[in-house]
Amino acid sequence: MRKKIINKIAEYSAKRPGIVLLISLLITIMMIYFATDLKISMQFKDLMPQNHSLVKGFNDIIDNYDSASMIIVAATGEEESLKKFADSIAPRIREKKEYVSRVDYKMNTDFILNHGFMLQKEKDLKNSLDMYSNLNLIPWFSHLNDSFEKTYIDDDESISTKQKENNAVGMLDRIDYLISSMSEFSTGKINNSNSDSDNVAKKFLIGEEYSLAAGKDMILLLVQPNFTVDEIDKVVKAVNMIDSIIEEEMTKYPGLDAGTTGTMALTRDEMVSSQKDMNYTTILALILILILFIISFRMWMAPILAGITMIIGIIWTAGFASIAVGSLNMMTSMFGVIILGLGIDFSIHIISIYTELRADGLLIEDAIKETLVKSGGGIVTGALTTGFAFYTLMISKSVGMFQFGLISGSGVILCMLATMFVLPSMLVLRDKINSKKTKPKKVISTKFLFLGNYSRLISKYPIITLLISFALTIIFIISASKMEFDYNYLNMEPVGLKSIEMQHLLEDKFDMTPDYALVTTSSIEEAQKIAEEARKLKMIGFVSSISDYIPSLEKQEKRALLIDIIRQNLKINKKIKPLSWSDKDFLIEQIERLQDNIIELSQLAFMGGQDKLDTKAETLIGDFEDSSINGSLGRLLLILDSKDKNVLKGVNQFQDGFSTAFKKYSLSMASADIIGLDTIPEDIKNQFISNSGDQYLVSMYPKESVWNLEFLERFKSQMEKLDERITGMPLVFYVLIDIVGQDGAKAAIFAIIIIFLLLLLDFRNFKFALIAMVPLVSGAIWMIGIMQLLGLKLTLLNVMGLPLILGIGVDDGVHILHRYSVEKKGNISRVFTSTGRAVLITSLTTMLAFGSLKFATYRGLGSLGIALFIGVGACFVVTITLLPAILQIMENKNINS
Amino acid sequence: MMKKIILTLTMMTGLLFAEELSVDEIVKKIDKAEQVESSFSKGKQIIITSSGKKRTLEMESYSKDKNDKQLMIYTAPVRVKGDKILMLNDGDDIWFYTPKTDRVRHLASHAKKKKVQGSDFSYEDMSGGNIKEDYNYELLRIEEIADRECYKLELSPKPSGPHYSKLILWADTERFITLRIDYFEDDELLKRLTMSDIQKINDRWVALKMVMKNLLEGGETVMEMTEMQFDIEIEDNVFTTNNLKKH
Questions:
Q1: Selected residues 185-224 of chain B with any CB under 8 Å from a CB in chain A
Q2: Where do the CATH 3.30.70.600 domains begin and end in chain A?
Q3: A153/B105 touch (CB, cutoff 8 Å), yes or no
Q4: ∠A848-A854-A858 over CA atoms, to 5°?
C-alpha cells in the first residue's frame, strides 16, 4: 500500500512537476495568510495548565490588580539629576492618557503627615516619646540618642532582616539630612527662612519623598497602564512610547541612565527578542546547513532546492500553528529551527540517492522514481516515528509541552509531505531545463568511503565493539543518574536586554525581586491575619499588605494611647531658650554621643554583613580607613568647635526654625483617629486593593533568593501551610518544572513504545525493529550522561530533549536497516558508504540546526539546543558503531548455523 | 558494589561494637571529647553580606568553665580590629565593646536563641552545656558521615536546655567527636552544622572547620580555626566588662 502510494507520487512528480509545484505554491500562499496572525507570548505562566489552582490564582491577581502589571521606569545617576529627571518625565508620561492612567514616584506626604504616628510600631513610639517633650536642641538630641540606643544599639536584632536594615538606613538618612542642614545653618549658608526649617523638620519626620534607593543612586517611577499585559499590541506601543520619552529627556542629564522594566517592559522585550531569535537562528541554521550540504554534495543547486523545500515546510507549519493554537510560547517559538534540522534530513536522503543514481547514468524520470522507491519508505517511517515521538508530549498537562508536541510533530510530518511532493518535482524540473539548455553535466559521485572502511573495521571486531559500547553506556547511566534540575528560571531568561539589566539593578538597589509569593483575600482582617502570620515565618524577609496602612483595630487603639501622650508632650512643650556659649559644650557632647551610637551601629552592621547600612553610616561618621574624610557629624563637630560667634547665632536660628516646624508637623502626625479604608489615598489603595474593590493583596518576599532547590521546596511548603491560595512566580515555576519533568519522562516511555510499534509495522520483523531501537535508546542515555559530565543541568526546556532525541535518533537506524534489507547480507560496508553518508550529513545538519539555538538570546532555548546537539551526535556515533557490530554478529550466527 | 558490601559489613561490625557501649557511655565519651575546661583559638568567620558579597572576619576566642564564659576579639580587617563580644552565664549576658567609641554596651534584649552577629550560629550554639545535662538522648543507629562511622543520636532538650525541639547528632564511633548536627524546630529541619578538617591537637580531636547551613532562611556561615589550645590558664578577669576596655 505504502509502496504503491510512493510509486504514484514518484510517477506524478516525474511527469507533471509543474502542476505539483503550482498546487504547493497555492497551499503555501494560503498558509502564509494564516501564519501572519501567529502571535508570540514568552511568559512562563502560559506554559502551565491553565486550570491549575496556582495559575488561576496568579492570573486572577494579574487581571484584578492594576499594580501587578506596572511599567517601571528606573533611572540611575546623581540624586539631584534623578529627582529633576523624574519631575520632567512624569508629566510627559501622564499626558499619554490613551495608555496611562497614573504615574507615581513620590510618597503621599499628606497621608503620612496626617496619620504618620498611627503607622509606627508601638515599640518605636514608646522609645521616642521623650523626643516630643522638649524641643530645645540639647534635650532634644539627648532624647534622640536615648531613642536611638533603645532601638538600634541595645537590640541586636534591630537590623537582622533586610526590611529592618532598610528602616535603619532610612533613619540614618533622616539624621544625615538634619545634621547637614544644621551645619549649613551654623555656617550661615542657609538663612532662617521658614521653608528651609520646614523642609528639615518634615524630612526628618517622614523621610525621603521621592522613590529613591537607599544609596540615593536610583529612582523609580511606577506607570500604571490602562490595559492588561495580555493586550500585546498596546504593551509594545506604550513601552515604546515611554522609552522614547526617556531617550529624549535622558540627554539633558549627563551621567544618567534610564530604562523601562517590570512585567510590561519584559513582555515587550521578550516578544521582540524571541521574534529576532526565531528569525535569525532559523536563518543561521539554514545558511549553515546549506553550506554543509554544498560541501558534502559538491553541488549548489540541489541544496538550494532543499532549502526552498524547508522554507515551504516551515511556512506550512506556521500556518498550521496559527490555525491550531493561535500563538507561540516559549517552547514552541523555536519550531522553525527544529523543523529545519529534522526536515532537511528527508531532502538529504532524496538528493543523496538521486545524485548517486544520476551519476550511475539513470535518466531523470527513472532516477526520481528509483530514488523515491529506495528512500521513500525510510523517509515516511522516519517522519512518522519522529512525528509521533513528538506527539507523545501531548500527554502533558503543561500547555507549553502539549503545544510543542502538536506543532513539532505536525511540522515534521508536513515537512515530509513537502519533501515528497515539492523536492522531486523541483529536481525533475531543474534537470529537464538543464538538459534542454546545455549538455548534461557529469554528476560527481560523493560516496563517503571512510564510513564504509570504519564499518568494515567494526565488523572485524564486533564483540569487542559491543563490550566497549556497553561499558561506555554503563558509565553514562551512572553519570545520568546524578543529573540535576536547574530550578532557577532566571537562567532561562535572555541576557543583554535592557529591561532585564534594569530589573537586576532594581533588585540590588531596592531589594525588590519579582520572586515573591502573593495571595488575595476577601477582607482587610484576613489580609492582616495572613500578613502577621507570614511575618512570623523565618523564611520571609518582608511582607507588604494593606495592614501596613490600616493596622488592626487592637494595634491602633494601643498606638492611640501613646499618640495622646505625644500630643500632651508637644502641647506642654518647654519654651525654646537660645543656646549660650557655655551650652555649646553640652550640645557637642550630644552630637558626639550620636556619632558614637552610629559608629557602634555601623560596627554591628559590618560584622553582621549589613553593608547597605554600613555604607549609609559612612556618610555620617566618615571613612574608618581614611581619617581625613569626615562624615556629616564630624563636619558639624568641627564647626561647633570653632570660636566663631556666628556659629552660635546660626545654631540658634536652626533651633528656632526647626523646633517650630517639628512641633507643627509632629502635632499633625499625632492624630489618634482610627485609620479606615476611606482614609487611605488612591495610590496606596491601588497597590493593595483589587479593581473590583473587594479583594486585598498580600505580598510576601523571601529572605533569600528562592532559586536554590532546598530553599524553594521549603518556601513552597511554608506558603502552602500558611494559606493554600498563595501563588507567585517561584511557586508557579516549581510546579511547572515538576509537571514538565514528570511528563517528559512519561512521554519518553510512551515514545519508546510508539516508535517500537511503528518500526514493527514498518519492518514486519521483530529483530530489525529491536535493532533499530538500539541507537535511540543508547543515544538518549549517552546524551544525558555526557551532559552531566559536562556540568550541564536539566532545564524546563532541555528536559524535552529526551522524548525528542528518541524521535530524532530513530531515523539513523531506520535508514541504515532499510538500506541493509535492500542490499542484503555481506554488504555492511556498502550500506555505510552510501546511506552512512546521508546519515552523517543528516546528523550534522540536525546538529547545526540545534546548535544555532545556542546563539538565541533566550538561554533556555540554548540549553535545549546544546542537549540535542549532544544527543544527535551521540545517536550518530552509536548508529555507525553498534549497528555494523550487531549486523555482523547476526551474519556470523547465520553462517555458523 | 564491593565498596558497598565492605561498608555494610563495617557498619554491622560497628553495630556489634556499639552494643558493647551503652548509650550513656557513648554520651559520656562524647561530652568528655568535646568539653574543655578552657580554650584559646584563632580563626576566621566567613559571612555573606546583604548585597551578596563575601566578608571574612578574623578573631581570637577565649573560653573558660566549659564555655560558660567566652570572649571573642576581632583582629581583622582593620575596620573591626579590637571589637570584642563577651558572653557570660552560658550566653545569657552579652556585651559589645568597640575601641572606636571606647564604650561597653550590654546587648539587653537578646535571647540565647538569637543569632551571633552576622552568622547562622545562635548564642546558644556557641555556648557551653553538655549532652548529659541538657538533653534526653537515644541512640538511633550507626551511620557513615564523611567516610567515618558515626553514632547517630537523637537529643531532646530538657526544659533547661536549648530551645530547639530536637537535635540529631552524629559522633565518630572511634574519636567520639561530633561530625554533624541537625537542628530541628517543630520537627522541621532548621540548620545543619557540619564539621570537617578533623585534627589532633593537644591530644584531643578537634574540627578546624565548621559550616552552619541555615536551611530555613538560606545562607551559611563558615568558621575556620587556624590555631587551638586547650586546658590553658586563663584568668577570670579576662571575662569581665572592665577588661574589655583594656587593649
A1: 190, 215-219
A2: 64-108+218-267
A3: yes
A4: 140
Query: What is the pLDDT at residue B129?
Result: 61
- Residue in chain B closest to A711 (alpha carbons) equals B218
More confident residue, A11 or A598: A598
Q: Which of residues 36-75 of B touch A (CB under 8 A)?
A: 47-51, 53, 55, 57, 74
Is B107 in the A-facing interface, judged by CB distances under 8 Å? yes
Q: How far apart are CA A405 and CA A368, in angstroms?
A: 33
Q: Does pLDDT of A785 surpass 80?
A: yes
Residue B99 forms contact with A (CB below 8 Å): no
CATH code of A64-108+218-267, in short, is 3.30.70.600
CB atoms within 10 A of CB A360: 11
Residue B214 DSSP SS3? strand
Would you give the distance in Å from CA A404 to the centre of its chain? 19
pLDDT tier, A410 (very low <50, low <70, confident <90, very high otherwise): very high
Q: How far apart are CA A828 and CA A835, in angstroms?
A: 10
Q: Nearest C-alpha of chain A: how many angstroms from B67? A: 22
**d(CA A507, nearest CA chain B) in Å:** 10
Q: Per-residue pLDDT for B3 more than 60? A: no
Q: Hey, which residues 146-165 in chain B have their CB within 8 Å of chain A?
A: none
**Selection from A859, A851, A751 nearest residue A800 by Cα:** A751
A774-783: average pLDDT:
89
CA atoms within 13 A on the CB side of A127: 17
Residue in this structure with the C-alpha cell 564555655, named with its chain if needed: B67
Q: How far apart, in whole angstroms, are the C-alpha atoms of residue B60 and residue A223?
A: 53
**Within 13 Å of residue A44, how many CA atoms lie on the same side as its CB?**
31
- Which residue of B50, B80, B101 is in closest CB contact with A610? B50
Fill in the DSSP letter of residue A623.
B
- Residue predicted with more confidence, A734 or A467: A467
∠ CA(A695), CA(A701), CA(A703), 5° rounding? 160
B65-119 per-position pLDDT tens digit: 877 888 999 999 988 899 998 988 777 788 889 999 999 988 754 445 555 656 6
Tell me what pLDDT residue A140 has.
Answer: 96
Distance from CA of A186 to the nearest CA of B (A): 26
Average pLDDT, chain A: 86
Cα–chain-centroid distance for residue A770? Answer: 42
Q: Are strands B148-157 and B166-172 parallel, antiparallel or unpaired?
A: antiparallel
Question: E-strand spans in B83-129?
Answer: 84-88, 93-98, 103-106
DSSP conformational letter for A443: P
SS3 assignment, position A72: strand
Kindly report, residue by residue over B166-175, the tens digit of the pLDDT: 999 999 999 9
Q: Residue B149 is which amino acid?
A: E
In tens, the pLDDT along A793-814 reads: 888 778 878 877 887 888 888 8
**pLDDT confidence band for B190 (50 / 70 / 90):** confident
A262: left (phi over 0), alpha (psi -120 to 50) or beta: left
CA distance A168 to A166: 5
Residue B181: what are its φ and ψ, rounded to 5°?
A: -135, 130
Q: Could you give the dihedral angle defined by the CA atoms of residues B85, B90, B91 and B95, in that order, rounded to the nearest 10 degrees?
A: -40
Question: Do B219 and B119 form a contact (C-beta atoms < 8 A)?
Answer: no
CA distances from A367 to A300, A345, A348, A434, A508 (A): 19, 19, 15, 15, 67
Q: Domains in chain B and their CATH numbers?
A: 21-244 (2.50.20.10)
pLDDT (tens digit, 9 = 90+) per residue, A627-652?
777 899 999 999 999 888 889 999 99
Express each pLDDT in A124-169 by its tens digit. Answer: 999 899 999 999 999 999 999 999 988 887 766 677 677 778 889 9
Which 3 state secondary structure label does DSSP give A878?
helix
